[in-house]
Write a structure and sequence with these properties.
about 400 residues; alpha/beta; Urease, subunit C, domain 1; TIM Barrel; 8-stranded parallel β-sheet; 5-stranded mixed β-sheet; about 25% helix
Length: about 400
């Protein structure tokens, strides 16, 4: 059975189509055109979203949990609750992100996350419309002690290909992203190996000077993790890792646009530097997202949440940011319009991690995952695999 969706406009997201006609069949986009001069096939159910905008479902490649669930601890059977919460904020796919923990605990968490990813891929993860875990992001254990943030120092590990392979085996091939500090001895070998395995290598939690960061890019790194946070600060004479991240067009880079992690003025400078094609929005959301103030878990770390700020031992510890708010904040903090902000939450992350054929884009053959937005970017409804209307 085909379903035809129409609205006031649609973001592909690189283009805007007025009065679109989006035809979905078997969970994929079968056709996309303008409604002008077209008639809907008789065998297609019609869903008209009126003055709304259709946009690709948001893809969050760095998030630790939400709705009270911590992804290092949650059971696969609990993740549909998180998935349903995420769809209320326009997210249709995400990378479950780890934190530094004892290796045995991390491997156990990776096995559970692999179960959840495989269940979501086969449609056996429960009923209802929910965002799907599409892969795993290893944030650690290969991080700088100096720029570790709240990651426990006792759980940081010197990078070796053997340890990386152990983590990949525990995750059964679902590791799609790795954050690593390139200045640590052994890091370059792991970067090269991860890149060889088609893992998106992201430099972050790092005190690297510019030449080392540049060497990491030559070794295979192609992304940067929460730019400015847990990084050697930018200096006008010794630009360090941030100088490489902002100036190298080979790198995409992500940023937490909650107005807490990075000042709005610096967000604007970041967007100017990385541009519409290379800027990526993430939330770094923890289990407290969507929950009242209180104490929550981030893997083995206890985090206090008050007035939208997450801290542990006086340091920032993730966020309670949602992706739709990040998109709206971009339009407030810069001169980017809604379509441009949406691209940073959809196509750009999908390209960075090699998923843009089916995710982060509205095009023939892509998954029928999209958000229905108001003119100012509020999420009115989220469609996953053509379902949810």
């Amino acid at each position: 059975m085909k379903t035809a969706f129409t609205a006031r406009r649609l973001f592909t997201p690189t283009e805007e189509i007025d009065h679109p006609l989006l035809i979905v069949e078997d969970g994929r986009i079968a056709e996309l055109s303008s409604l002008s001069g077209k008639s809907v096939a008789v065998n297609a159910a019609l869903v008209d979203f009126g003055d709304a905008t259709l946009a690709p479902g948001f893809l969050d490649v760095h998030m630790h949990g939400g709705a009270g669930l911590d992804l290092m601890r949650a059971l696969p059977s609990e993740l549909p609750r998180l998935g349903k919460f995420l769809t209320t904020h326009g997210v249709t796919g995400y990378f479950a992100t780890t934190v530094a923990a004892p290796l045995d605990d991390t491997c156990a968490a990776l096995a559970r996350l692999a179960d959840a990813i495989e269940a979501a891929a086969t449609g056996s993860n429960g009923d209802g419309v929910q965002a799907r875990p599409l892969g795993i992001h290893l944030e650690g254990p290969f991080l700088s002690h100096k720029r570790r943030g709240v990651h426990p120092p006792e759980n940081l590990v010197t990078p070796t290909v053997e340890i990386f392979d152990r983590l990949c085996q525990a995750a059964r091939g679902h590791v799609r992203m790795l954050t690593i500090a390139p200045e640590i001895p052994g890091a370059m070998e792991v970067i090269a190996e991860a890149a060889k395995r088609k893992v998106c290598v992201s430099i972050g939690h790092s005190d690297a000077e510019l030449p080392v960061a540049r060497d990491a890019v030559s070794a295979g790194a192609r992304h940067a993790t929460h730019t400015f946070n847990a990084m050697r600060p930018l200096d006008h004479r010794e630009p360090g890792i941030i100088g490489e991240v902002l100036s190298d067009d080979r790198l995409t880079a992500d940023i937490i646009v909650d107005g807490i992690h990075v000042a709005p003025e610096v967000v604007k400078l970041f967007l100017l530097a990385k541009g519409h094609e290379r800027a990526v929005l993430i939330t770094d959301a923890i289990s407290a997202t969507g929950m009242p103030d209180g104490r929550y878990q981030l893997g083995p770390i206890e985090v206090d949440v008050k007035d939208g700020k997450c801290t542990s031992g006086g340091s920032l510890a993730g966020s309670v940011l949602t992706m739709d708010r990040a998109v709206r904040n971009v339009t407030k903090f810069s001169n980017w319009n809604l379509r441009e902000a949406v691209q940073a939450a959809t196509l750009n992350p999908a390209r960075a991690v090699g998923l843009s054929r089916r995710h982060g884009v509205l095009a023939q053959g892509a998954d029928a995952d999209f958000a229905v937005l108001s003119p100012t970017g509020e999420v009115l409804k989220t469609i996953v695999r053509g379902r949810g209307f």
